[in-house]
UniProtKB/TrEMBL annotation:
Residues 24-170 form the GAF domain. Belongs to the PEP-utilizing enzyme family. It catalyses: L-histidyl-[protein] + phosphoenolpyruvate = N(pros)-phospho-L-histidyl-[protein] + pyruvate. InterPro entries: GAF, GAF-like_dom_sf, PEP-util_enz_mobile_dom, PEP-utilizing_PTS_enzyme, PEP_util_C, Phosphohistidine_dom_sf, PTS_EI-like, PTS_EIN. This is phosphoenolpyruvate--protein phosphotransferase. Its cofactor is Mg(2+). It is an enzyme of class 2 (transferase). It comes from Ancylobacter polymorphus. Keywords: Cytoplasm, Kinase, Magnesium, Metal-binding, Phosphotransferase system, Sugar transport, Transferase, Transport. Its EC number is 2.7.3.9. GO terms for molecular function: phosphoenolpyruvate-protein phosphotransferase activity. Pfam families: GAF (PF01590), PEP-utilisers_N (PF05524), PEP-utilizers (PF00391), PEP-utilizers_C (PF02896). It is found in: Cytoplasm. The keyword Transferase applies.
Length: 755
């Protein structure tokens, strides 16, 4: 390196020695800038740290006036240093004072220095500060020198991120690396969770960044890259994806990134500056992430996640760490933070230790959200780049009511939320006081209010809430948390426990609704271009009749001497219902033949969630004993909007007149045939939506346990004839509106309804 004494490897070794010295944070920084200046043959070396107020403070310097340390502060939109921080890109100039962004600070004495090289201090793509070297001569810094300074900035990033500098700062001027963050996202599951961050896919912490053997590090890097490429090739050769389709195109793009010479070359160059293979991967990915975070193109932002994943895979190869989260180390008050995750992954955790869930993606009606609600876990989604802004163990507050997340909250915020939790507990006590009050509207109309459930942990909620029964028991959750396919006796035991807990209350069991994003860990996943519209639920059951028969047999035996209510999900045609019902009759015959006890009565119904059934209601209601409306899927299919896709999940409102007309069509046709219908989707779990459902004719609703109290409190105060008189004319108006939500909210406010 031109003009350097010993090169970056010598500098990194000396920095490692300084890092190990038992000195104050200021002394450590002062020694570091002296070392960098000497190594770079620079007359000035300065460290600027980004503060919580968004300004940059001079924390250490060699060459500038020492009295300017902690006194020189500039905005992030000010000067060359501010430009480096804002753009997260190096700036190299032979005549800095001629640059339009140059900002002269007389207290520093920098007017005699002309050449300028500044690099951002980055961690996980986030800017923590700026490292600068300057010289009097009009000189151009080489690419090698820029690379060396960026490598050195990695060491400074760890010092800043550790919080070591916080004690040096005045209140309100602490380093931004550990600053409290207040983020706003989408509320997914009600509740308030106070705890500490657990990363679902933990970042690999690189503990050794300075290399001792460069050829050896290059060999390790090349070996890890080859292993990564081979693993992607294996995925592409799998017969499940060996055809055209969007999923294959994604994997092809993934392979393209893994073979990108520029990406690999930058990591090799980083190793040559003195970094270990792990340090090189982290350096290059942090730089890349910083650039992509500042892009507005959604496609390019999405590719950032691909590169993050590739980098993490490389780090796992290099460190020998297995993929996945460390569930065994879960603290008592865990808040899971993830880009996204499957319902099965959430169920794999010890649920008694989870206080909250924070997602970069997530949608209000996704299956993951449904499971979080069922478990009573406060959840917030749409938290962009949250994974890159937290560290494992950070204090965090999740407000699943307002959609807010507080990371490293100050004491006053934490105390306010402790009070909020107490207030919420008191409100829950008021709901508990309504347990034995019949759910009857203000005008005297009875409403059956049931619970949605799917796990044994849900069963105590029946007695706690005083629910009419279980309107939907999702049997697939037992299969999703098991390590192997549950045997008939295991299923039998669960179903009996559910019926025992319900006592005389009715329970509606839904047969396996797997497929899409609900994957069983012991079944081979089938790659599909549109899994929500693919081989799932009753389609899978009819194609694998042995699977469906074994479950129905367990359900029939569990209900010996009792009533069994059974529904089939994702039915698209009456013929599918007939075939499924025939399996029930065959299993009843089998049990009779072999002398087994039988249920006292078997009622068989269907989930109304595919729009095609709306045009077969006469044929359907002439066959079924009852029906349940799965509003989550029905609404997503009506609007062709994937409820698991954050970009479109909330584009359409289920309170739009078109959606409410479809729901009213169902309840009106059921009344003609005298068949009971329950709406068991998440739509019923929100008081305002429940108001609309009751107004259009629904008298049976099934809600999540956390929503039972709020929905019941609203119904008790509801004047149903007034609500119906208000809503029905709105459904027939010629001028279609996007949603009736504003009108319904105004009605509720005027009527004094608790929402």
């Amino acid at each position: 390196m031109r003009g350097a004494l010993g090169g970056p490897r010598v500098l990194l070794r000396r920095l490692r020695e300084v890092m190990a010295e038992p000195v104050s944070a200021q002394d450590r920084l002062d020694k570091i800038v002296v070392l960098i200046a000497a190594n770079m043959v620079a007359e000035v070396c300065s460290v600027y740290v980004l503060r919580v107020d968004g300004t940059l403070e001079l924390y250490a310097t060699e060459g500038l006036n020492r009295t300017a340390v902690h006194l020189t502060v500039m905005r992030i939109d000010e000067g060359l240093v501010g430009t480096v921080a804002r753009e997260a890109e190096p700036i190299s100039l032979s005549n800095a004072q001629a640059h339009p962004a140059f900002s002269y600070r007389p207290e520093t004495g920098e007017e005699i220095y002309h050449s300028f090289l500044g690099v951002p201090i980055l961690r996980a793509g986030n800017t923590l500060g700026v490292l600068v070297v300057q010289n009097r001569a009009h000189r151009s810094y080489t690419e090698e020198e820029i690379e060396a300074l960026q490598t050195t900035a990695m060491v400074l990033a760890e010092i800043i991120a550790s919080g070591e500098l916080t004690a040096m700062a005045l209140p309100g001027a602490e380093p931004a690396a550990r600053r409290p963050l207040h983020l706003k996202g989408l509320a997914l599951s009600e509740g308030i969770g106070l705890g500490h961050v657990v990363l679902h896919e933990p970042r690999i912490e690189v503990t050794k960044v300075i290399a001792d053997d460069l050829p050896g590090e290059l060999k390790r890097l090349d070996g890890a890259v080859e292993t990564l490429r081979a693993s992607i090739d294996i995925m592409l050769e799998d017969e499940g994806v060996a055809r055209v389709g969007e999923h294959r195109e994604i994997l092809e793009a993934y392979r393209m990134f893994a073979h990108d010479r520029g990406w690999i070359g930058r990591m090799r160059e980083a190793v040559m500056t003195g970094l270990t293979a792990e340090g090189a991967v982290e350096r290059v990915q942090s730089d890349t992430r910083a650039r992509m975070l500042r892009m507005t193109d959604p496609y390019l932002r999405e590719r950032m996640h691909d590169l993050d994943d590739l980098a993490n895979r490389l780090l796992r190869q290099l460190t020998g760490r297995a993929a996945g989260s460390e569930h065994s180390k879960l603290p008592d008050n865990a808040v899971i933070v993830a880009r996204n995750m499957s319902p099965a992954a959430l169920l794999d955790y010890d649920r008694t230790r989870i206080r909250g869930l924070v997602l970069e993606e997530g949608a209000a009606t996704s299956h993951l959200t449904i499971v979080a609600r069922a478990l009573g876990i406060a959840a917030v989604g749409h938290m962009e780049n949250v994974v890159g802004q937290v560290d494992a163990g950070d204090a965090v507050i999740v407000d699943g009511v307002s959609g807010e997340v507080h990371i490293r909250p100050p004491a006053d915020v934490e105390n306010a939320y402790v009070d909020k939790v107490r207030f919420r507990a008191k409100r829950l006590e008021r709901y508990a006081a309504l347990r034995d009050v019949p759910t009857v509207t203000k005008d005297g109309t009875p409403i059956e209010l049931h619970l949605n459930a799917g796990l044994l942990v849900d069963l105590p909620h029946i007695a706690e809430t005083g629910a009419t029964g279980i309107g939907l028991f999702r049997t697939e959750l037992q299969f999703m948390i098991a390590s192997a396919f549950p045997r008939t006796n295991e299923q039998l035991k669960l179903y009996r426990s559910v019926l025992d807990a319900a006592g005389e209350r009715p329970v509606v069991f839904r047969t396996l609704d797997i497929g899409g994003d609900k994957v069983l860990p012991y079944m081979r996943a089938i790659e599909e271009e549109n899994p929500a519209l693919g081989w799932r639920a009753i389609r899978l059951g009819l194609d694998r009749p042995g699977l469906l028969r074994s479950q129905i047999r367990a359900l029939l035996r569990a209900a010996t001497g009792r009533e069994l209510r059974l529904i089939f999900p994702m039915v698209s045609a009456v013929e599918e219902y007939d075939r499924a019902h025939h399996i029930v009759e065959r299993e009843l015959t089998h049990l009779r033949r072999h002398g087994h006890g039988l249920p006292e009565r078997v009622l068989v119904g269907v989930m109304l969630e595919v729009p095609a059934l709306l045009f077969q209601l006469d044929q359907l209601f002439s066959r079924v004993d009852f029906a349940s409306v799965g509003s989550n899927d029905l609404v997503q299919f009506l609007y062709a909007a994937d409820r698991g896709n954050a970009r479109v999940a909330d584009r359409f409102d289920p309170l739009a007149p078109s959606a409410l007309r479809a729901l009213k069509l169902i309840i009106d046709k059921a009344a003609e045939y005298g068949k009971p219908v329950t709406l068991c989707g998440e739509l019923a779990s929100r008081p305002l939506e429940a108001l609309a459902l009751a107004a259009i004719g629904y008298r049976k609703l099934s809600v999540s346990p956390a929503s039972y109290g709020p929905v019941k409190a609203m119904l008790l105060e509801l004047d149903l004839p007034a609500a119906s008189a208000f809503v029905e004319p709105l459904l027939g108006t010629r001028g279609e509106v996007a949603s009736l939500r504003p009108q319904l909210a105004a009605f509720a406010e005027k009527a004094g309804l608790p929402l």
